[in-house]
Write the structure tokens for this entry.
Amino acid sequence: MVTLILIGLLGGLITAVSPCILPVLPVVFLAGGTGRGEDAGKPARSPGGTEVGGGGGAAGDGGRAADERGSGGTADGAVATAPPAAPARVPRNRRPYAVVAGLVVSFAFFTLLGVTIISALGLPQDILRYVGLGLLVLIGLGLIFPPVERLLEKPFARLPQRQVNKEGGAFALGLGLGLLYVPCAGPVLAAITIAGARGEISSDIVVLTLSFAVGTAVPLLVFALAGRRVAERVAAFRRRARGLRIAAGCLMIVLAVGLALDVTAAIQRSLPDYTSGVQKKIEDSDAARQQLSGLYDNSNKELSRCEDGADELRSCGKAPALEGIDSWFNTPGDRPVNLKSLRGKVTLVDFWTYSCINCQRAVPHLRDWERAYRDAGLRIIGVHSPEFAFEKKRSNVVAGAEKLGVDWPVALDNDLTTWDNYRNRFWPAKYLIDAEGTVRYFKFGEGEYDKTETMIRELLRQADPTVTLPKPTDRAMDDLAADRTPETYLSNLRIRGYVGTPLVDDRPTAYRFPKGSLPLNKLSLDGTWTAGYEQFTAGKDAKLAFTYRAKNANLVLAGTGKVTVLVNGEATKTISVTGSPTLYRLTDDKDARTARLELRVDEGLQAYVFTFG
């Protein structure tokens, strides 16, 4: 259980700093610093109700009381004076906590129970999204027009603490944001949303959901507290509190319109998925798989013979059927596609969902492959497996696909039956099926498009050795075909062109060079190495071989020790390495040439990335 909590917390933390949540950050920041307009500049009150420093009313009341007591016949005729009021304590602005609490509560509750509630009440699948958009607009209007805000806070008026019910509008804002919060989905969120969609709510799922929600709350709360601190410390914000609230209200309304028209997605697609590597490292680790394995169907185990993004085609068993499909589109008469009818073709099955930013960024590559290789025998099938309830609505999916330029057959896997058949854990995920109907390769998440295209081309050649293929579409593939070997990371998740003993993550392992010559743009290890996400660390008798084509070869190294460089079996230089990661020149020729580079690396040195010039 502890491991499950840690996985959920870390998954939530990574999700909350991913590009997918950028649209909500400005709102969270501003909402944390915008208090009630009627409180701005208003004097605080003592516990007895007297205003401190307010002037006018309080003093006048005190004077009248003294006169009344005097006229009542004091013995010495002196005027009684009220004791001085104690300094009032200004209520603390708790809006940051209210906003984030509302977001976490609504996101966790409706992710787990939203589908069940909607189905039981017979409501439209996208009702929650519309409610969230409506709440966002109402909160924006409340910031601009105080009477609207007071109306929104009425449901909280019965709460005993005045300060708590004053933050009712902030909590309502969080509820609305939680309904619109569509983070990048990894295995943890996939497990939660799929269990929620099926109504399979176990104690493990509840714990995973709560820990994930808490993890996402931490960075969001930091943003909200930063907004509050700026509002409290910067004089310009205090003087212009009313204007700031109006600006925040306008921003929320603009955000609601942008989300409704899907404008924010264009911005998110333009940003790189900078958290994908870390997310995959944590959420798809061996420990995470073991903890999450009970949340997935256990059929089609032969698919486990393949690994994500392998460097070679493998036999991963017969392609599972496309079952439990709600409906199809982009086919003649919207008729279903049977995989058996595609024997003799190479088929790419793409699991996606239209609102997922990761999926949206992958679509242009699929579109290029569809155009380039269709005549050569490639067929693409999109399996739309929804992450949220509103993604089940056919008209939403059709509109989303049209906007993205998805014109290949799409199956609506609303019950996630086909998702289970393929033991999938990611949006997006690509499975390559050969002409005989066998799964030969799959890739989870974004990236490595050049490798996937290489596998497509190889399968097309296997299906028809006489086929004539066009030039590769991927830029990295163009690099491979050009007169220079491309940049190559020594990372267990980003490495390409590796051959030899399978890599073992983060553990010292003995490797061996493969027999025979090493093909161009391929590298291999020998001796003991520890393959990590950021670098490979040399152990005892560590060697590295790389057949490259370029004028010069370079490698980023760190640590203290020596590296002996051999080119085509001949020792050419010895490099002394010391200190933090630095680029070292390994070879330098006047003209580009093809050569086998071999490095003999001292124990403890760290190697990061090869570059070629």
Observations:
- The CA atoms of residues 64 and 241 lie 35 Å apart.
